[in-house]
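Milestone M4 deliverable, item 7.
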Amino acid sequence: MNIKKELYNQCEKFVNNRLQTIQDIISSNQKALQSETKSSAGDKHETGRAMLQLEMEKAGQQLQGVLQMKETLAKMDVAKNSTISHLGSLVKTNEATYFLSISAGKLIVENENYFAVSVSSPIGNLLLGKQENEIVIFNGKTSLIKKIL
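Output delivered:
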């Protein structure tokens, strides 16, 4: 089994689930906005509409973030191997194994833990461009890069 391909698939699933959730929120808020009718309690009505508008804006921002994740995944080539870590690399340290991709958190493949991290995250940025046997210090912890796949 190709571990990088499986991690990529899990990241893709993570993004698609987030996208579906956000689209559901937007859809339900749009329906709620349309069904809001002017009642005799005008202030209450306006407050309700304002809250829905805020929810819509928040969902819109989340949607942008998810679309950026989809773009990042589209740029990745998990088949590419290199001695220098890049987007799509699997970086094994003596502490953990990181998949330089999107911020999807802990993923499990064949009972092994992997951490999908964005290259723009602090740890992802630190690991980017590194080579085997280099040492990185993150949050006061020193880690040795054992392998880059």
